[in-house]
UniProtKB/TrEMBL annotation:
It is found in: Cytoplasm. Pathway: Purine metabolism; IMP biosynthesis via salvage pathway; IMP from hypoxanthine: step 1/1. Its EC number is 2.4.2.8. PANTHER family: HYPOXANTHINE PHOSPHORIBOSYLTRANSFERASE (PTHR43340:SF1), HYPOXANTHINE-GUANINE PHOSPHORIBOSYLTRANSFERASE (PTHR43340). It comes from Rotaria sordida. It catalyses: IMP + diphosphate = hypoxanthine + 5-phospho-alpha-D-ribose 1-diphosphate. Residues 53-209 form the Phosphoribosyltransferase domain. Keywords: Cytoplasm, Glycosyltransferase, Magnesium, Metal-binding, Nucleotide-binding, Purine salvage, Transferase. InterPro entries: HGPRT, Hxn_phspho_trans, PRTase-like, PRTase_dom. One of its GO terms (cellular component) is cytosol. This is Hypoxanthine phosphoribosyltransferase.
Amino acid sequence: MASIEKSSKKNIEANPLIIPDSYEGYSLSYFNLPLHYRNDLKSVLIPYGFVQDRIEALASRIFDDLHIGMPEQLICMCVLKGGYRFFSDLVSKIQNENRLRSDRSLPMSLEFIRTRSYINDQSSGSLEIIGLGDLNKIKNKNVLIIEDIIDSGITMVTLKEELEKFHPKTIRVASLITKRRKDKKCVFKPDYCGFEVPDHFVVGYALDYNEYFRDLEHICILKESGVTKYKVTPSNQVK
């Protein structure tokens, strides 16, 4: 049995499944999408079922990497708002591993923080972090940050630096998506990642554009017309 589990762990990639630049996604006509968004989307890049399968594989890999002989709590930290769907599904699938593997244990607790660094589709150059005031509890604990998407990587670098001030035992990062930028190289590589995507503006599965599109099940490419339609200006931006 031990050899089978070891082989299973070896075959599950922590690195992302790479979607090539030439891939433009699936036609919208194959999916039942909300009518209020259909004209704003170019294609379905990653269908919901594919997302779930990849998260299940990541959960198995994370469990194998982080379970400990003597139970030691893992603090799972959700980066709101975009990360809540990935966070919920990943934690649920790790819990399934706990139920299936009676010889191992990975106790978890949950924390929630929020960051903001984007206005429309551009980085503002600064990072606002909400919810760090009571995180002394992570001292000497293992932390898993769960994020929806890593773009430039600057936000995650800054977040890790802030969390390290609370002296955790370890910090690992799981991201559903990393983006392959044309104009700059990502400065951060997560420990676990679902997909690496081309330099498209993607929405859905809780990834938003100015608070729209979180209610899409699939991960989709947003049209330029959609970017313009839902763009905010300093005068109408919610503070």
